[in-house]
Amino acid sequence: xxxxxxxxxxxxxxxxxxxxxxxxxxxxxxxxxxxxFKQHCTNCHGNDKQKSDLNLASYAALQKGGSSGAVIxxxxxxxxxxxxxxxxxxxxxxxxxxxxxxxxxxxxxxLWVEQGGRENAGSKAVVAxxxxxDIGLKSVVKGxxxxxxxxxxxxxxxxxxxxxxxxxxxxxxLATSPWAPLVAVGGxxxxxxxxxxxxxxxxxxxxxxxxxxxxxxxxxxxxLLVAGGRGGQAGKAVLYKIATGEKVVEVGIESDAILxxxxxxxxxxxxxxxxxxxxxxxSTTDGSVIREIKKHTDWVCAVEYSPDGVxxxxxxxxxxxxxxxxxxxxxxxxxxxxxAMITDVSWRDDxxxxxxxxxxxxxxxxEMENGNPIKNWGxxxxxxxxxxxxxxxxxxxxxxxxxxxxxxxxxTAQKQFEAFPDLGLRVSVTHDNxxxxxxxxxxxxxxxxxxxxxxxxxxxxxPLPAAERLKAAEAAVVxxxxxxKGAQAGxxxxxxxxxxxxxxxxxxxxxxxxxxxxxxAATKAVADNTAAANAAKxxxxxxxxxxxxxxxxxxxxxxxxxxxxxxAVAQGEATKKxxxxxxxxxxxxxxxxxxxxxxxxxxxxTKELEAARTxxxxxxxxxxxxTDKQAAATKxxxxxxxxxxxxxxxxxxxxxxxxxxxxPVAPAKAAADAANAAVSPTKVALDAATAELAAAKAALxxxxxxxPPQPAxxxxxxxxPPKK
Length: 724
Known about the structure:
The chain contains 9 helices and 28 strands. By secondary structure, the chain is an alpha+beta fold. The protein folds into 3 domains: 7-114, no CATH class; 174-461, Methylamine Dehydrogenase, Chain H (7 Propeller); 470-670, Helix Hairpins.
């Protein structure tokens, strides 16, 4: 039922006979090909009726091709479907009966295409432009490539949608860049690109070939492969350059819409699956078919190359799941276990494990050493629609139960996200493993936080025209600005009230602290001075007793000195008189002896006088020391008693003040805490409003018309006069 309708034109052409050419070696459309078309083809592909939108009744109409694209490539019959299907080089072979047309007719058709498909004898041959795509890599880089990840360059991609439908269609295709904050959502006749960091639309890629069924980023994130087509008519896969949006490669000779496609890690091959039950491998260099793999027994619904480019996994509607050698097409493993349609496959980054999901509701993991199953679990009731490995080894999935989930490799659910309105169809994970993005049958696309399962953004799979988005963005900026101002006013009022109440609490607390500190200091002074007075009293008493004890001795010593001085004076006068008498009678021995005796007695008395004086001085010094010690001890005691009285007075004054200072503190503290707590929500609201305003401005910026070029500045001084 889904056979390529275009094949009818080929069959009709090839069963017809040819007429004589003016020059059989240089056939033309008018003289050789058109008569054949009129005889056998124009009933279905003429002016009155055009199956597959193909009209062969005129040269100009033939050049337009049909719904599947051009039917001839001038100069290259091997890439001209008009020839390859007829020659049984490609499927579906024509005519449907299986009988190939006579070789003479094939040779005529081939020769006409080889010579450029001329219209008439006066026409010049058309030479097909050779492909200039050269995107193949010499080696495959594992992991993140060097340099910044590619993002669409501002101004290079269109922001105007190709189609604005009444409502979004089912999200049949969705993919995230492996290394950049970028998600591609399959819309109607277009791919919508969003920045996953801020949710902004950053570009739209037109897809003119029908429904989009598959989107895949290249492993180095430089390219985006989009595949699909028109059911029962044709399928195409188009490779776009992410940075500029330009088409790099377009392949597809499919007779039905492509259901799944992927580009190899070295970017030399594009593998596609379709209802034809074939896996067709195209070259990215010239778009030619490299090989066809014929093993599936039903529609091929899932296709993906391993990250290292060595293997290719494919799955079909009958539950068939195979792994192939990517560059030979030889079967590597047949993985048996699913009991219903394979809906998706995904490789772990190390290429050692393959994940698959199916309409049987399960997700299964397969190891690539022996092709054995290593884990399987029921993921989604009614059917699992999509599964993706994350860079950190987790798996995201979605399915018919409308739920999107995040798993570890043991099949343990890590997160379950908000349910969709309808069946979940596609899921992917951002390059940083932070967001899970999924889409459903009703066209809803949501980005979830992998950390807390919150909805971070809703992406529009049916964006408004740029003018309407501009108007909406401008309104959003105005609304967000008003919200910021309102939030700022609320925050300022709450902050002012919090400051007022907090200041009152701080003042009450400071007053209490001062009174408490002063009372504590006074209480300590009472204790310290009481201790000092108690310690000084015995010292003072002892010093007084010692002074009282030494005072009589000082008096006695002084009296002794006075008595000794009187005796010494009398003895001195007597000695003087005797010595004078002896001097007058030098011959009198008695006088001489008396004089000597008197002198000796005076010397003894003088010595005794000096000793008495020394003892008196010592007594006086001892008494003075005792008196000084008594004075010091008395002062210490007196000072302690004075300070004690002052401290006791301070304690008596402060003690009644403590309770009045304490009572207001707790209520003031509660009021301050409440006021400060009230500030937090207003700050959160202000931050949210500020972020919303920033996002609104960022969304508005790409939609604003570019500023007109500024005129050159006018010279301020007149030009110099010309030289003579």
